[in-house]
Every structure is written in C-alpha cells, then in structure tokens.
Amino acid sequence: MHHRFLQTLSRFPWLFANDARDQDQVRNAEDVLFDMFKNEETGLLSVGKFLAALRTTGLKRNDPRLKELSDNLKKEHLKTGGHESISHETQKLDREQFRRIISPNIVLISRAFRHQFIIPDWAGFTKHIEDFYWTCKSNTEGKVASYIPQLARMNPEYWGVSVCTIDGQRFSIGDTSIPFTMQSCSKPLTYAIALERLGQETVHQYVGQEPSGRNFNELVLDYNKKPHNPMINAGAILISSLLKTLIKPEMTLAEKFDYIMNYFKRLAGGEYLGFNNAVFLSEREAADRNYALGFYMREHKCYPEKTNLREIMDFYFQCCAMEANCESMSVIAATLANGGICPITEEKVLKPDSVRDVLSLMHSCGMYDYSGQFAFKVGIPAKSGVSGSLLVVIPNVMGICTWSPPLDPLGNSCRGVQFCEELVTEFNFHSTYYDHRYDNLKYATNKKDPRRHKFETKGLSIVNLLFSAASGDVTAMRRHRLSGMDMKLSDYDGRTALHLAASEGHLDCVEFLIEQCGVPHDPKDRWGNLPIDEAETFGHTQVVEYLKNYAVAYQSEQENKKSGSSDTESVSSGKVSDPSDNSPLT
C-alpha cells in the first residue's frame, strides 16, 4: 500500500520540486501529504497511516531529527482529550492540525517522500539485506572465543545485522538489541579521537600506518621501533597512552573513561552504550600477552613521557569492555561513512581528515591476519572484534554492524565475513567499483547500485546504448551486448539503437545490431517511423539499400518457413537473423 502511495506522490510537482523557495511551496508539500493520507469521507488524516508510510522510507519512530513531530503529536493528543495510555498514532487530524504538527520537520519528511535519501528504494534494498541475513544464518562454522568466561558463555546462535545510512535510514534484523563488548572494534574509535585531539603528525610520531604482516598480538615493532598500526594490540595500547597522557592530562583515570565514553556516545547518536565490568576484570586477569606488549614497548621507549603503564593497560581494557549493540554500532559506522557527522543527530563529531585516516587503516589492517584477503575480496573498510562484532563502513553511503559470536581461525566472525561477501556480490560497493579508481573496470560489472533510482538505472543504460549507436561506436555496442544488455531497448519516444545508427548512417552498427544481436529490422517509434525511414530522411543510401535487401530476404524467409521449405535466403551483405533469436541464422 505504502509503495503505491510513494509512486502516486510523483504526480504532485509541488512536493517533488527540488528547491523549497518560499513558504507557499512548504504549504503545498504539507497539503499534498495531507491529501494523500486523509479519509475521503471524513476529511481527516490518520496519524498511524502517515507514520507507517514514513517508516517505509527508512526513518525510525525515535529518530532524534523527528523529535518535534513526536512531541507535537503527543501534545495534540493530550490537548484533544486523549489519554497517555493510548497511542497517539490513533489520532485523526484536520488540515490545520497536520500543518502545525509537521511544519518543524517538513524538510526531512519531504526529502523522505521524494526519495531523496542515499538509498531511494529502501524497501527493495532491505529485502536484499534480509536475504543475506537468512543465507548467512545457516552458516554454523567457527567457535566462540573462550579465553575469558564471559565470551565463552555467548550463545553461538546469536546473529544480528543493523544498517544505518548517511541520511539516517535504519534497518535491523535478528539479535540487534543484545549488548556485546566492543573489544577490537573500539580501536578505530580511540584512534579517531587521538587524531581529532592531537592531529595526524603527533599521533604518527608514536604509531605506524602499515600492515604488520604478523600476528595481531605478536611481540614485534616496525623498523622505526613503533607499533605497526593502531588496529593491532600494540598500536591500540600506544593510542591509549596518548589519550591518557597527552589529551587533558590533568584528568584522573575515571574522568578519562567518562571522556572517551561520551565521545563514543556522540558517535553513536545517543544510542545504547554501556560498560561490562566483569569482562574488564576478566580481560585484565588474562592479559599476559598484552602486558608483555606493554613492557616491550616501554623497553623501546615508545610511550610519551610520564606514562603510567598500569593505568594505560587498565584504560585499554576498559575501552575494549565498553558495550554496544548492533544498532548503536551501525550508527557509529554511519558517522564514519558520513565524514564524521552523525547522521541521526547531525552533530559534527570528527573532522573529515581524521575519518579518512581511520578508514584507510580499517581497509588495510582492520581484519587481523585476514585483512589483505578481505580488502581484495570485499574492498570495504571494516574492523572485527573477538566478541563476534564486525564494523563495516561504506564511505558516503552507509554503516553496517553484524554480530555473531562464532569466529574463524583468524578471529573474525564467520557469518559477518560471509555477509560482507554476499553484499559486494550483489552491490557495487567494492572500492574498485565504488571509487572508480580503475578506468578499465568502468564497464566490467552488472552489479546493482542501490543509490540510483530504479528507473534512473534503466534510463542510464538506455542513454549509454543510444549514444554508442549515434556515434557509431561498434566496440562500445559490442561491450553492451556482452554485458547482457537488451539491445532492443528504446527511449521514451520509442527510438531504438537501430533508429539512431540508421539516422547517422553507421552501416557497421546497423549490421551488428541486426546480424549479431538479432534486433527487429522494423521497430516503430512514437511517430510511426522505421529505421529505414530515418536513413532515407538523412540520405544514407547504403543503409537504405541494406535495410531494403534485408526486409526482402527476411520476408522471403518467413514465407519459406510457412510453406515448409528448408531453403534459406541470405541478405546480400550478411545472414538474415530472426529477431526473436539472439544469434545469427545459418
């Protein structure tokens, strides 16, 4: 029902105007929305029906940007005699009430209904996410981390996926509200805070920027006697020392914990964040290797002056023991995808330069010893944690968090890695496609781009095909053919590639379309013109002669088929193709 409503909205130009120039246009948008949802008999709008349609665009009921809408609905509900125990969604509003209530948030709401979010077809996209979820749910590989009891007790059946786009579109499926400790997923966040407060130059005086090529907790430093990068244990411990010693050094350990927790909450847009003291205590008791790394770096004078190693180690374990869930982590990932601006609060938490550096290292170092293969196969910045979480960032599009405790031998969530592989198999999110950094890959994929409108994608294919035909680019047309494109596609006037090739006199293109692609030789455009008419109009005699000969031969062939004859006539310059086939007749 709501999908049909969204289609119907396209008939109203006021709501779909791209620039809101004055208050009259805003009122037009409010009126269009009211008219679409009002009951024709009573003339009143159903709040429940309106909010349900709004949610299909990806906006959640508790989105902070819609606080005014929610507050106004509650006030109106109580003002008109409604009881607090009864949902305000049962309200019926007249036109003036609706205008007054929706006015503070009309820009966001009109964007939602105009399909101006980064993922226009939200229902279609989330259907794919659901399919990936159920495909991966059947994956029973891996073992739950057991080095501390709290992790070992996790149910291996837990499996959740949450998505948040840079426009604040949200979707969750599975066990997405169950808390888990961040573990190593906190590392890109503490690194980001260090960059934000100290700057890249200062931070990288102490920690490197390259993959180590060694185990994530190995006792090794790079050639400069620094940890290789902030995504491994040694690097994260060093970053903890910078946060504790160089940023507001007057703070106590408790105050510094609150300071970092507040930063994390701002990244998460106020979504759930907590702390698991039992995990913190267990981590500290089972930390021989981490203490060894800490003392090893102290031996090599890696820390800033006045560093208290015991405090630094406790602070590092506290950051790892912070709790989140899939929904809050997906918002954090979306904040990184949005250049440091939280999509649901619109607060600028990090500078774009800080985010750039974080994503670069997540891409190259974020998946433990699997980082290189993950970058090759998936091509998306990501960071995994031993609790089974996986933080995934698709720059300028969305953030995703998956959570499933069973891990592969390298410490990554089995279901999480499979989900990412499914994602890039279906969509062009791999960095080589997304960034267009490799020109030779420009035409090499038929993967979906969920950022495009459904008809925009088809329209772009038609435009590319018709331009190739008009310019006589047989090579490009061959590429379109090999990619599986329907070479009979036409524009809104019914003009096909054959019309364009004939009108421009490109005989080689005409021959290719008819003989190799099997397109009909006589399609009519909206004015009833055939390709041969176009060729005659513009004086392309060779094309006219070819099409006439083909038409005669094709008609003769059809008559022979009807009479049962096995003889087949040929066109003088090529074999006759049956337009219903995709291969030349022999």
UniProtKB/TrEMBL annotation:
ANK repeat coordinates: 493-515
Family the UniProt entry places it in: Belongs to the glutaminase family.
Gene: LOC107264143
Protein's recorded name: glutaminase
UniProt-listed Enzyme Commission number(s): 3.5.1.2
InterPro entries recorded: Ankyrin_rpt (IPR002110), Ankyrin_rpt-contain_sf (IPR036770), Beta-lactam/transpept-like (IPR012338), Glutaminase (IPR015868), Glutaminase_EF-hand (IPR041541)
Any one biological process term the GO annotation gives: L-glutamine catabolic process
Residue ranges of every copy of the Glutaminase EF-hand domain listed in the record: 30-120
Biased composition (Low complexity): 565-577
Catalytic activity: L-glutamine + H2O = L-glutamate + NH4(+)
GO MF, one example: glutaminase activity
Classification via SUPFAM superfamilies: Ankyrin repeat, beta-lactamase/transpeptidase-like
Natural source organism: Cephus cinctus
Region annotation (Disordered) ranges: 557-586
KW Hydrolase (keyword) present: yes
Pfam families: Ank_2, EF-hand_14, Glutaminase
Keywords per UniProt: ANK repeat, Hydrolase, Repeat
Gene3D superfamilies: 1.10.238.210, Ankyrin repeat-containing domain, DD-peptidase/beta-lactamase superfamily
Quaternary context: Homotetramer.
